[in-house]
Structures are given as structure tokens and as C-alpha cells.
Amino acid sequence: xxxxxxxxxxxxxxxxxxxxxxxxxxxxxxxxxxxxxxxxxxxxxxxxxxxxxxxxxxxxxxxxxxxxxxxxxxxxxxxxxxxxxxxxxxxxxxxxxxxxxxxxxxxxxxxxxxxxxxxxxxxxxxxxxxxxxxxxxxxxxxxxxxxxxxxxxxxxxxxxxxxxxxxxxxxxxxxxxxxx
Length: 180
Description:
63% helix, mainly alpha, 10 helices
């Protein structure tokens, strides 16, 4: 009995009355595994429409496109420069999270469905110092992961966690890979 109770504390969703854990459904395995929360945003047409109609999110996206286009002119062949263009400041992450939350607040049924799916996934548990809204937690996670992935595989900034099986095929920082 004590062992069962102890295991229940460690297994996500294993409390009294919790739903049985189910495997996640990956429609596009690589994208969904890396950015499951963002993938869920695209699966619900009402959620996707709420995001597409948000003036704040549209402005942030337009700013990001301008920054990316500017990199074409300013970065030349420096891959690391392109990687840095895709970094998000803490302020930008917070602005996007607030805009996402506001966009979903205008569609409460869609927001409930999305947050229920995020909760069921067990991937974005709430904790001290984290946003109460599951969609915002998923966004913050994605905003932190994208630069890490780009920095590892395009910029050679950080070694991957499993370099023997998960590392880039080439040594990315030195020429000729870092400059083409």
C-alpha cells in the first residue's frame, strides 16, 4: 500500500479519480514531439482562428518577419547570425504569452479544449513561478526550446544531450559550414 501511494505521487495524473494516462498522438512526429503545445494550437480550428485574428499576435509575427528579412541583408553567410535573429527576449516571450492568453479568452470554449488537451498531455505541469494558463506554459516552453535547438544544430553553440546519436552530422561552428 505504501509503495502504491509513493508511486502515485510520482506519476503524472495518478491521483484519486485521475484519468488513465494515454499515449500522445503525434500527427507530425518531429514537430509534435518538440513543440506539442504549439501543435495543439493548430489542431483546433477555433483556436487557430483566434490566434490568426489577434492583432497583438499579428504585430509580433510581422515584427519577427521583418527581423528575419533583415538578417538576409545583414548576416551574409554567417549561420550564427541567422540563429541569433530567431532568439526571443524575455519581454517578447511575455508579450506573446499575454497576447495568446487574450486571444483565447475571447473564445472560452476553445481555450477550455486546448487547456484540457495540454493538461491531459502531462507535458506542461503548473508549478511555482509559472503561468497558470497551460497554453502560456506551452508557449514559454517552445520559446525556450527553439533557440536551444537552433543554437545546437545550426550554431554549434551547445553540445546536444546525446552527442553520439543526436549530434549534428558536421562540426557546425568552423568554416566552411558556419559560412556558406
